[in-house]
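Reviewers asked in the last cycle whether our approach scales beyond single polypeptides. To address this, we selected a multi-component target totalling 323 residues and predicted its structure end to end. The input consisted of the following lines:
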Amino acid sequence: MAQVLISTVTVGAGGAASIDFTSIPQTYTDLLIVLSGRCNDGASVQDGVRMSINGVTTNRSFKQLVGVGTAATVNGGTDDYLGNVTGGTATANSHASMNLYFPNYASTTLNKPFSQEIVPETNSSAINMFVTAGLWSSTAAITSLSFYITGFSWVQYSTASIYGIK
Amino acid sequence: MAQQAHVLISSQTLASATATVTFSSITSGFRDLRLVVAGQSTAAANVFVTLNGDSTASNYAWIWMLSNGSTTSSTTGTDLVFGDVQPGPGTNIYDFLDYSATDKHKSALARVSFAGYEATVVSKRWANTAAITSIALTANGTTWASGTTFYLYGVLG
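The resulting structure, written as structure tokens, was:
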């Protein structure tokens, strides 16, 4: 009964279009994903990160609380957006930090809500933090997760770990 | 990467709609407690927390920040409220920090995530130095729906 490391992905030289976890074992109660990442968009301080579940990006909904440095704002939608990660113009070597928690991920009778926070770290006022309530309206057990930035790649040393909790 | 250990203390899966779920006789062998609730209520409601059976409202304080997708708000109170629950799938994650200390008031954080309704963060203080030995969560004025799961973990530190 513990928090058990299932897998860690670290992006190598040349970057990667996505960070993927496949063949996720179905033997835990919950999943925790911890990600430290940055994308290669040379024109932006932050870019949107997205997550596909079992290769699917539909049947999703979310509400977000967004801190912009001077106020709290809101966001919501029905796509696979999670928030922003650090972009290529951010302070060198700074990466976004994310926690994402799926309870009952192996259930075949329940839809899959998740709780997530992400902060794209940099020494800039033009940066946001995100607190997300998300839902994948599917009773399928989660067997794979993929994190990606549309049109861009994760840079080297971006890393993510997935933990099983039971 | 350091690995934070969660140890399952107890779990409950509701076989029928239930107003209050209680974890009692919580041992003191951990640094923190994490209580993960996955499911929903039968109607929208505030969640009331009662620690060690103390239902005196003035012993509890909280501050709440919420986004419902179109507006954001922040509220404070002095009562049992500790987040809310909605009649759609979601999760409430509660962290009770340094719960077994006997020299400080107890602070706790809640992350309330209901994608059809809200993303909410709540900070809570219980003005009592006693170690937490029981936690009761009530869907105030309604019930937690059948099938809702409650997992209480001890976090080693």
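The domain at 3-165 of chain A is CATH 2.60.120 (Jelly Rolls). We regard this as preliminary and will revisit it once experimental data from Aim 1 are available.
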